[in-house]
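**Reference record**
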Amino acid sequence: MGLLGLPVVLYSKDLILYPADLNYLAKNKNDYFRKIETALKNGWNYNRVKYAYRWLSLLHSSCTYPFRVLDTQPNNAFSIPHYQKVSLNEKIQRLLPVQVKQILSQILVKVPFTDVGKNQIQDCIRQKITNIDIAKVEKMLLKSSNTLVNIKDLRQQAPRVAVENLQIRRELKVIYEALFPGKNNLRNIKKTGNNLKYNLYRITRNL
């Protein structure tokens, strides 16, 4: 829910596998109901979305340690530069609405020679020919050595606030289009009384 900017009230931090302070965490029964009132009063919040995405970035990207050493030699058919080339099919699909892309993908995946799934196949082949090095991870786990995640480097690599906001708003626009397909305008959305729809539209309408 935090990714959508919606408040969540918890009575125990043991219920989740992410930082509890992304939500409202109650200390006891009375505090639980007070937190519910606070959540209802504060409602939707963009900062909640931002903090949730920061946590996911840390969890799934920044703290990810590669076991495989990628071969980036130019003569390798599955080297990174070759793999990252965008096909004409992908360029066309990026211009289409989400709903159209979903329907089109279901059709094209059944048609041979359309290159649908080609990137995934190439990725599997590329992974097979890379070397695996777990020595550093093994040392960290068995000998309790320092973590391989360098927090100082992560802070230096953090994007500017403006760039971060733009990326998050783009993600929210994709979510909005998937949740609320069709043409919308601010006046009609206000009439529906849907606070989530209104806030997602408001934060993404100028993209």
User: Anything to note?
Assistant: Confidence is low (pLDDT under 50) at residues 72-84. The first strand starts at residue 9 and ends at 10.
